Amino acid sequence: MIQLIDPETNKLLEPMTRFDVLNTLDTKTHRLVQLVPDEPRNPDFIPKCKILNKKDMYESEKKAKELAKEKKRVQKVVSGEGLKTLEINWAIDQKNDLMHRLEKLKGFLAEGRRVEVVCAAKKRGRKASREECEGVVEKILAAVESVEGARQREEMKGKLGGFCQWTFQGRPLTNAAATATGVGKEVGGGDGKGEQVEVEVEKT
Q1: What is the pLDDT of residues 161-171, one digit of tens each?
Q2: What are the extents of the domains in the chain?
Q3: CA 128, CA 121: separation in Å to the nearest integer?
Q4: Keyword Iron-sulfur: yes or no (predicted)?
Q5: CATH architecture of 83-169
């Protein structure tokens, strides 16, 4: 015997046989789920179950995975891993090498991290022209602007063509600590929360 949760009132219905429930269930679109684990030592235990739409379950699981991913991102940002430093040579190849660095910058900002960009000239390297330096600055700022929510945290410090640095802040953090509401979180009739267990077909 099992007891179903009424999908409209969220209350417990009268006990039914599992066989009767499964006989009326379209297993292509719906699933019979047990909301609490069995109690082997309780002879009067009747499983509390609910008929759930498979599409809704998929969406709920998808949302939970997205929230878990976001939570991981937030934890990484608020920990010591949050700050990143990116070094750029003023005389860098602006067609290839700079674009590669800027992709890293955009990736860090998209994760919500704080990024310190340091530009400097190599001691024994070629000295970049003022036009090249201005091009580097322009491309850095354009890369930051392309990331939604990212912003310049501090003004540029230093000298164009010499040693200088900026600090940029990635996109704002969201409330990833919230958990997805959905399957099995609440059951009616005063019954508590519990593990979901898919009910297997028994026609004996």
Answers
A1: 999 999 999 88
A2: 3-65+184-198, 83-169
A3: 8
A4: no
A5: 2-Layer Sandwich (3.30)
The type of residue at 130 is R
How many angstroms separate the CA atoms of 144 and 134, rounded? 16
- Are 42 and 35 in contact by the 8 Å Cβ rule? The answer is no
Tokens representing residue 131 in the block? 């036009």
Given a contact cutoff of 8 angstroms between Cβ atoms, the answer to whether 162 and 120 are in contact is yes
Instruction: List residues bridging with 83 in a β-sheet.
Output: 114
Residue 27 token pair:
């297993």
* Residue located via tokens 């600590």: 177
Mean per-residue pLDDT, 48-75? 84
Please give, one letter per residue, the 3-state secondary structure of the chain.
CEEEECCCCCCECCCECHHHHHHCCCCCCEEEEECCCCCCCCCCCCCEEEEEEHHHHHHHHHHHHHHHHHHHHHHHHHCHHHEEEEEEECCCCCCCHHHHHHHHHHHHHHCCCEEEEEEECCCCCCCCCHHHHHHHHHHHHHHHHCCCCCEEEEEEEECCCCCEEEEEECCCCCCCCCCCCCCCCCCCCCCCCCCCEECCCCCC
Share the mean pLDDT of the chain.
Answer: 81
Which tokens hold the place of 183?
């399957």
Amino acid residing at 43: P
- How many whole angstroms separate alpha carbon 109 and alpha carbon 116? 11
